[in-house]
Amino acid sequence: MEQTELAVVGAGPAGLSAAITAARSGLHVTLLDEYPAPGGQYLKGAFRPTAAHPLPTAEQQGRTLLRELAISGIGLRTQTLVWGIETSTAGWRLALYSPRGLDWLDAETVIVASGARELIIPFPGWTLPGVMTVGGAQLLAKEHGVLPGRRMLLAGSGPLLLAAADTLSRQGAQVVAVLEAAPLSRWMPHAPAMWGNWDRLREGWHYLYRLQRARIPYRLGWTAIQASGRDELEAVTVARLDRQGRPIPGSEEEVRVDALCLGFGFLPNVELTQLAGCDHSFEAARGGWVPCLTERLETSRPGLFVAGEAAGVAGATAAMLEGQIAGLAAAHRLGRIPESRLVRELMALAPRRRHLARFAAMLNTLFAPLPGLDALTTDDTPICRCEEVTAGEVRAVIDQGVWELDALKTWTRVGQGPCQGRTCGPLLARLMAHERGRPVSEVGSFSVRPPLKPIPLGDLARERVL
Amino acid sequence: MTSKADAVIIGGGIVGAACAYYLSTAGLKVHLVERGFPASGTSRACDGLILTWDKSPGAELALGQASAMLWTELAQVLDMDFEYARTGTILLAENEPALAAGRARVEAMQAAGVRAETLDDVGLRSLEPNLAADLTGGAFFPDDAQVDARRATLALLTAAQQRGLALHSQTEVSAIRRANHGEGRVSGVVTRSGEISTETVVCAAGVWSNIVARLVGLELPIRPRKGHILVTARAPYLIHHPLLEGGYVTTVQSAAEDLQVALVAEMTASGTLLLGSSRQFAGFDRSVSLAVMQAIAARALRFLPGLARVGVLRSYAGLRPWSPDHLPLIGPVEAAPGFYLATGHEGAGIGLAPISGQLIAGWVTGGDLPPVAAEVRPDRFELSPC
User: Fold this and answer.
1) pLDDT tens per residue, range A286-339
2) Element (H or E) spanning A75, and its range?
3) Cβ of B290 and A95 within 8 Å?
4) Which residues in B lie closer than 8 A to residue A277 (C-beta atoms)?
5) Torsions phi, psi of B214, nearest 5?
6) Cα–Cα distance, A121 to A225 (Å, whole number)
7) Rg (alpha carbons) of chain A, rounded to whole number
8) Is the CB of A101 inside 8 Å of chain B's CB atoms?
9) Which among A265, A271, A353, B70 has most CB atoms closer than 10 A?
């Protein structure tokens, strides 16, 4: 059985930063990532920077970390899925699946840096070919130089829409419009949180400026409400939204496009910490369910830390800073750095951390999907695409008095497909909360059990040391 | 909520649902209280096989046969489809001793009036072409069936509700009232949301039955026995009948403390496979063990090599209410008049739910009871006062 002092799950900005910080303190570190190369979604592929397109500061930092990783002595295992976690005599045992097959990693400490995934709001036609997430489209363009369509429409909420519009139009796509569902009319109260976050603001301005130069309309308070086409996307119906986020009847327009990119923000990936039995709480300003963490980013289970988006959606800069903290905390736990140094370092990082957290909370609040958007999910809209269950079927069950998320699985087949409810779980929670007039926090989330992602049975069965 | 009921059932799993169905059908005004939601405990963490051949001839088999017939009836009577399929089950033998044991099982079942036949190599492969090449035979029990356990629970409850059942989910029982300073007949059930006055309480709380029984001063010999199940991606043509290896009976009948694993494979209506089985005493811990997942996968692969490339989607572990003599505890308890038990079915709760409900209805309404009723009475154990 492979052993390590620190296992870091996820090699995006947070994981890279955590692994490098811990390795500098002398820890034996193993860095695991599902993808073939480290960097996470954020550092995948890149355009060569030019005067007109300088690299954002966070991306520069991230690229520095990638270069340092190569000479750090950190054991990097790519194409490696962490599908289970248990306690062991050493601390934690991670169940891995990679081209080597199935194996195990015993780690004295673990830092979970599993990032976040995109949230979409389903509406009729969202499962048509040609409809995808904003992040997915951006990745295709950045990493593979592939455009998902020629004429494209972007809809959703949050700054990623702007960055993606820029990427896609630079790659040659005709971006018809960017629809931002949030009216952004109430940004003034948030101005104090913006103070000092000049890098992020400059980045935002830069994208807005690029959009204007490219003559791409940025429409506030609009969204896509229906996608149509015979075998693939041909047209999208867009509508203006009222203050609650409900589409205003009569405002509909039809836009002919061959690709629609959706993104309503991010959800922290908390499956691994849920499986490990850590306490979680619902924090809307951090993107939803997040693990309860100490100042040192330790969960309620000793020796298990979380950094980056998995601890709350806050962007790459905050992720790298949290990686640093978690890396130091792990090194401290294993006795490599004294308490005094840890306290000193934490204090030095604290002001910057507070600043970033405030800014993130502002963005998450400003761009939070409005409750009225749930009206887009009409009864005939598929809500669990793996098992083809419609929102109407789920609402009928809720009307019968079924009030628990897990009970929905008993009544319908939601959440029982290959994605394990990763996509539909949060949507069902929103729907349940909406129907019952209760906060999403009270609805809970699907219970999580191994494997976190499907594994071929033959590989699972192979005789191993356990 | 303050209400009156002819009977209050505690526990909304398959057994409680069956009790609710038969008591409501008998015309009683029934309330069912469930701590979580219907089928939130063991009844959604199990397979859905209705077997007779794994039962020992005698009381256990008599229960199994009677219940299997009731399931056939329920499949026709209940409105909600619960994926009942009378597929028959196949017993697989890995080697000559297992084959011999299989033949003995067939003879014993035939003697007891259960349809059963031995399968040779050709017979086995005509039923299941995808089995491992080295398997040379087994046995077939054509009357066995399968259901979706969760949907079956809901189907029984829905039918009971049509007959007047009041269902209280998210309702935990905090006390059971008794007349005569807590010594006499039960008189009511107290929950956080109110009290239901009743002279009849049925405990169908599975592995959690002791929590309920202690409210009337009883201590039951029930222990949680943990079982794991894997769920695969859709592979609809891989098998056509539920498959069990001969060793399964040994694990079912044994009371061994440590982990035991034997193949059980069931194709669901949606095309996914449920793969079991494991049995171990591990307290009330419901977490999935990675090592047990591996052991079950290895067992399944040994009999079905075609599973190698089929994805395992998820796993779950359920707690089966184990009883020392491998018979459930069904019926009244002398020490607590008006208090009835329907628990201790271990891994046979789905199969035995209807007969359990029918026996309870018989006891409560004073109707006719079959001879087996006496053999499963809880008072065969010393239900030691605590």
Assistant:
1) 999 999 999 999 999 999 999 999 999 999 999 999 999 999 999 999 999 999
2) strand A75-77
3) yes
4) 287
5) -65, -25
6) 10
7) 22
8) no
9) A271
Query: Rounded to an integer, what distance in angstroms lies between the CA atom of residue A284 and that of residue A442?
Result: 13
What the block records as the tokens of A351 is 């002001």
Mean pLDDT, residues B62-85: 97
**Per residue in B184-213, pLDDT tens?**
999 999 999 899 999 999 999 999 999 999
DSSP assigned state of A55: P
Q: Which residue has the tokens 């119906």?
A: A237
ipTM of predicted assembly, 2 dp: 0.92
For residue B176, the distance in angstroms to the closest alpha carbon of chain A comes to: 26
Using a pLDDT cut of 70, give the percent of chain A over it: 98
| Dist. CA B223–CA B346, nearest whole Å | 9
Rounded to whole angstroms, the Cα distance separating B295 from B165 reads 42
Residue with tokens 């494991």: B278
In a 3-state reduction of DSSP, which class is residue B130?
coil
| Residue A259: C-alpha distances to residues A106, A156, A210, A262 (Å) | 45, 14, 21, 10
Q: Is A450 on the interface with B (CB under 8 A)?
A: yes
Q: What share of chain A is helix, strand, coil (3-state, %, to 5)?
A: 35, 25, 40
Number of neighbours of residue A350 by Cβ within 10 angstroms: 12
Q: Which helix (H) or strand (E) holds A260?
A: strand A259-263
Written as six digits, the tokens of A8 are: 């870091």
Q: Measuring CA to CA, how many Å separate A178 from each of A162, A166, A232?
A: 8, 10, 21
Closest to A294 (Cα-Cα) out of A318, A270, A348, A330: A330
Across the interface, do A461 and B150 touch by the CB < 8 Å criterion? no
Are the beta carbons of A457 and B307 separated by less than 8 Å?
Answer: yes
Cβ-based contacts of A409 with chain B (< 8 Å): 44
How many Å lie between the alpha carbon of B154 and the closest alpha carbon of chain A?
A: 8
| CA gap B291, A144 in Å, rounded | 39
Residue whose pair of structure tokens reads 């300073």 in the numeric block:
B181
Q: Least CA distance to A96: which residue of chain B?
A: B290
The greatest distance separating any two alpha carbons of chain A, rounded to the nearest whole angstrom, comes to 66
Angle (nearest 5°) at CA A78 between A72 and A84: 115
- In single-letter form, the type of residue at position A28 comes to H
Cβ contacts below 8 Å, chain A against chain B, sum to 101
